[in-house]
């Protein structure tokens, strides 16, 4: 059964030709992506055809009978075409909110990661915006030709206009409000100006949801299921985000460019490779949340994160860490990473760029643990190809992974794990010799600098003197003082004392119960709001239903949202959080925080001359200067996997496939995709997978 499941995953993730075109157009197109595209376009086409035929046939019949239409035939057809397109948005609205939920039964049942689902949300969003843009422009064109554009555009509740329930001005506001959301969601803005994208996305979402329901009462119908699933995720995230934890340990690399930090987690919070977590540090910014990939494999009760100094937020974080400040942390997660898609492949190739090694470290630690315990499916060969701008980024390599290079391959020939390190630019920094001493250490003179100077990570190299630092960089164990710290106003509630990070929900029963309350509460909210329509029909006869339709539409969507969110959070999530906090407050808080172990220098690689390693164990990994030739190296690995003596598990003992995982900057990912598309058909198949986290 497991072999069949692994084969199914491989088939779904197979990249369709022409791979070079799809890589340029949409970052690659797998079999699963094509299935989703066909289902979406098919449902849109069927909905459009069914509605358009209903509109088109009467026009043809009336024209054939010689009866005058309310305008030129082209204008009437354009208006009906516009209405058919607006009706065809229903399946898109039904599907668009499902992928944005980090925690839902969909991700648990299908095993699909958020990084995959969010692509579908972007595709659906672009399709929806093109459709409603056509609808709006076509309607404006008809109004301009009729000479009624101004009166129709500004119409809010006029009974005289077409006797329809549509509030035209509300529809225009919904469309205009969604345009900034659409523009800022483009890659060029989302990746460079994330805060701008995030703020416009939230604002545009509320404008579109509220005013589209005022424009056409009943708009909630296609949105309802997706909004309920998103409401479940929102409840869990808000519940976690209201709690406060703290950084228990942190370490800054030799040149001050890489920060490794730890958070204490409850034993019930399980982490696995490829999971990500959202973190907020109120003392830096109360409104800025950053996603981080968890470096899985740290000791139980710990969440380890690698961060590269990039921008004002990470720079200030390092400055505060170096000053040994106690920092409150709000969190939401971890999310994703439920499925281990690398199972079943004879060869696993991990290509990483810079600090994007974090998800690959999680995969490597899982594979190393399997190889050492001889449990689970273990590939015959594993390759780590790691390219970084500076040598200091290699220092996050863990001892257990470096030691795995001594594991023999199943065939008995060569290494099971091959690690290749490439530095694209040299850097002048302290280098350790194999004896464990720094070069020119005896000639180093104490440096007199101010605390402000040392607090800046840019000047971190000045710590390298016998009086300022240890050989492996700045290491801060903050555990002893965490229990004595109180973070006032860090939480939106009264939670001042830090606590271990708690999981999103407490067991499967709690998870299912929240779903039940959300769906039931949303339906009850709709029933309550529908009573308003009945009152209008009974007490305001003759005034025109459309005069109050915007009120009915607004009331429906607001009652549905409040009914879905309120009871589930107030009855099932908030009491558990408060009870847990008060229960922990009565106990010895100092005993809750574990001691720091995973950040010790024994576990972190030391920089040597053109190499990194662990001198005390005799482990040394060379660092090559220059960029990695991805096509050439991939072709060599593929040729080795296709050799007759390769210990494969496929038909006739051949290699059943190469799992190729890439995480890094866009140019590297694009080069990897082009390298895969350039491979000839003959040889083991390559299953490409992009692991760069993008929202």
TrEMBL record:
Q: Tell me which UniProt keywords the record has, alphabetically.
A: Membrane, Oxidoreductase, Transmembrane, Transmembrane helix
Check the UniProt entry and state the signal peptide residues, or none: none
Outline the extent of the FAD-binding FR-type domain: 237-341
* Oxidoreductase in keyword set: yes
Q: What is this protein called?
A: FAD-binding FR-type domain-containing protein
Q: Where is it located? A: Membrane
A single Gene Ontology CC annotation of this entry is: plasma membrane
Q: Which organism is it from?
A: Apatococcus lobatus
What topology does it adopt in the membrane?
Answer: Multi-pass membrane protein
GO molecular function per UniProt: oxidoreductase activity
Q: Does the keyword Transmembrane feature in the UniProt annotation?
A: yes
Q: Where are the transmembrane segments?
A: 21-53, 92-111, 123-147, 167-184, 196-213, 505-528, 548-578
Which Pfam families did the record assign?
Answer: FAD_binding_8, Ferric_reduct, NAD_binding_6
Against PANTHER family, the record matches this protein to: FERRIC REDUCTION OXIDASE 6-RELATED, NADPH OXIDASE
Looking up Gene3D superfamilies in the UniProt record yields: Nucleotide-binding domain of ferredoxin-NADP reductase (FNR) module
Q: What is its main location?
A: membrane
